[in-house]
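dumping this here so i dont lose it again. seq + smiles for zinc ion
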Amino acid sequence: MKFLCIPCDAVMEFAERQLPGDGTLAAIFACPKCAREMAMLTNPMETQLVSGLGIKVGGRTVPEQPLELATTSISGGRPDAFVEAPLAGSVTWSADAKDRLQNVPSFVRGMVKRIYTDYARERGIPEITPEIMDRARSDLGLEGM
Ligand SMILES: [Zn+2]
């Protein structure tokens, strides 16, 4: 990661770093030509992302925490949640249930479908109907999906 002073077309030099210990980080970069300064502030998660990419700030890495923890919680804990399962077991969707799935915004439809499919498969339910969807929603606390 580098910052460029646009008027000078010069790479800014790292000037100061603070690691208060709560995971936040403030770094000052200064232009060697015009002495313009800029500060980079990050919150704990961003600090983890930066350090997880192997970027050293000020010559010292931020204390390590597994990056996977951060990325997993960003994506909702299911790395494969956005991939529609090719194997849906023997679970089928009734026409009514499929219609209802169409009401789900397309960008989460695959994930929602997966949640319902998993729910049915885990309980040995062979066909997902609107009634099953209702039951899954209240069982899983997914009101509004
Ligand atoms: Zn400059």
